[in-house]
Amino acid sequence: MRLPPLAPDRARRIAAGFGGAHVIVLGDAMLDRFIVGRVTRISPEAPVPVVAFDHETHRIGGAANVAHNITALGGHATLVAATGQDDAATTLAVACREAGISPAFVGDATRPTTTKVRVVTERNQQVARIDYEVESEVSGDVEQRLILLLQQLAPSASAIVVSDYLKGSVNRRLVRAAVDAAATHRIPVLVDPKIPHVDYYAGATLVTPNHHEAEGATLMRVRTPDEARHAARAFRDRAACEAVLMTRGDQGMWLLDPAREGREAGAVEGHLPAVRREVADVTGAGDTVIATMALALSAGATLAEAACLANEAAGISVGRFGPSTVSQAELMAAFGAEGNLNPGSS
Description:
The structure is a single chain. The chain has helices at residues 8-15, 63-72, 87-98, 140-153, 172-185, 211-218, 225-239, 285-298, 303-317, 328-334; strands at 22-27, 29-42, 49-62, 76-83, 102-107, 115-121, 126-132, 159-163, 189-192, 206-207, 243-247, 253-256, 269-272. The protein is an alpha/beta fold. The strands form 2 sheets. Strands 5-4-1-8-9-10-11-12-13 form a 9-stranded mixed sheet, with helices on both faces. Strands 3-2-6-7 form a 4-stranded mixed sheet. Helix 6 (211-218) crosses helix 7 (225-239) and helix 8 (285-298) runs antiparallel to helix 9.
């Protein structure tokens, strides 16, 4: 079954509420560094290209990219994450503030700030990547300080997003704290998952696996809409969450909303076809999806309406290189609705 389209007027009314949303993003914040240069020869020392340095840039990635998508769409985001006590943490915090994000970082002397260094050519061809990271989960005082931050911030939040990249800022106790805080304050908690942590997500309002993650968690093949339907149901049972939005790349999305499952009228379970645009890079598309979902739910959208908005936003995101954001004006233009509804948004 295909989900019904979202009318432009309804899209505008939902987006008008983005400016009043405050989303807490808990997860693995990263710094993406790009060393850009020209390749004109192969090294005589080994069969590798020699990159003549031209310039270096950086972007915020991981959970920070989720928060950046929220602010770019006109919402307010606070990023709760563990970082190292290093220069990269300072760079990340400054970049977050420049993006309109409120960083709430807990420094951990036992780990570096997660940093991905990519060596790329002027034509955006990646030559090599160097990762600075420690994957062990936070514990002790760092864990407790992160939980305290969640509890302090939750009363002013309209949603909580858990952005899990398996880099240590997300563990079972932190997800439990997020779910408990969300229940106390009657707000949704959304999870962008990693399958080794699937048992952590019990009680979440929505989990957004891609089809590979759904296959890994359920041991079920996902190639057709009918297979997606069965896998989404199995994933919901496996994760013990309320709802599932499975992203399927060029096959679109599948939404399972159990709040209405089985009802004769208005049942919400179905397929959204992919938005057909030229794909440059899928990096960060999942961040765009969950950020849009969180804002739309904060603004009073149903899960189906939020999924329609997220599907369009993802279609814009994949047309860009590297982690990227989508503006509210771009999203509204995709629905044929003009304008940027929040004066303060970017």
